[in-house]
Amino acid sequence: MKTAIFAGGKGSRLIEETKVRPKPLVEVANRPILWHIMQHYSTYGHDHFVLALGYMGDLIKRYISDLCQYNGNLRIDFANRELFGEPEGDAGRDAPTPPWVVDLIDTGTDTMTGGRLARLEPYLHDDTFMLTYGDGVSNVDLDALVKFHKSHGKLVTMTMVRPLTTFGHLAVREDGLVEGFEEKPETAMDWINGGFFVLEPEVFKAVESVNGDEIMWEEGPLPKLMEMGELMAYRHPGFWYCMDHLADKRRLEDMWKSGNRPWATWEQPTNGTAHSRQANGTSEEHQPGIGRGANPGDWVRYKSL
C-alpha cells in the first residue's frame, strides 16, 4: 500500500527554519521530521512513498537521493569518477537504511493540499493508499487503522487525535475571582483531524467537482466526503504531535533527548504482534541490492560522477 505525504507547503509559522529549508526537512534529533514519519510507516511494512513537493522541493529531492549514501561510509574513485558506498559499515547509526521506494512529484509551489493530492492521482489510482501530513508524528497503530478502514467500506478514513496543550489552566468563579492556577499541565484537548488517512482510489472522482489547485483538502474534499457519508474516523488515543511552530520543534527535541519519544516506533520491540515488520526496517522479501552492502568492505557502486 502506497503512502502519500503532503510535503510542499511553505511552513510560514515556522519561518525561523523554513526560510532556508522546506518544513519536512526541519530536523528533530539531527533527522528531518519527514524521516521520522517515513520510519514509522516503514515499521509497519509500508515502504512505497509518494511525496507531493512544492516549496523548495529540490532540497527534498536532494535529501532523499543522498540519504543512503550519507548514512554509511563512502569511497570516491577520482580517477574513474565513481562513487561507492558501504551503507552497513556505520555501526553508530540509529536505524539501518530502510528499503524505501520514493516517488518525488512536483505539485506546484503555490498549490493547496487538495490540488496537490489531485496531482498525485496518476501515482495512486490503482489501489487503496494512505495519506498524511509532512509535519506530524504519532505512534498510531497503522495495522489497526487499515483494519478499521477495510471493515466499514467507505472511501476515506481519517485518524482522530487528542493533542496535548501546555497552556496554564485557571479555575475562576462566575464573578471573576481566580481560585486556582495550574502551571502548564499536559491535558488532552478535543478530538481533531490528525491526518494518517486511508483512502480508496475512487476518492479522486468523488471530490473532483469541489477540488482544484486553490482548494485545501480540509475545506473542499473532506466536507464533501462527509456530506456523501463516505468519511469515517478512527480514534487514536495515543501520542500525536504536530511541529507547527519553533516551540514544537524544541519540545520534540527535548522529548527525544529525554528518551520519551513514543513516535519512534522503529526503536520499540514488537512482541511479534503489533507491527508488520521488525524495528530494523527490513522484511523477509527484501534482498540486498544497490546501496545495501551486506558486509564491511562490500562496496556498492552508487553512480558515475
Instruction: Note poorly predicted spans.
Output: 89-95, 278-296
Count of DSSP-assigned helices: 9
Class computed from helices, strands and strand pairing: alpha+beta
Give the helix proportion (percent range): 10-25%
Q: What's the story with the biggest beta sheet?
A: 8 strands, mixed
Question: Any key phrases for this structure?
Answer:
single chain; 305 residues; alpha+beta; eight-stranded mixed β-sheet; three-stranded antiparallel β-sheet; 9 helices; 19 strands; globular
Q: What's the topology here?
A:
Layout: E1 3-7, H1 15-18, E2 27-28, E3 31-32, H2 33-43, E4 48-53, H3 57-71, E5 73-77, E6 82-86, E7 101-106, H4 113-119, H5 121-124, E8 129-133, E9 136-138, H6 142-152, E10 156-161, E11 164-165, E12 169-172, E13 178-182, E14 187-188, E15 192-193, E16 197-199, H7 203-206, H8 221-227, E17 231-235, E18 240-242, H9 246-258, E19 300-304
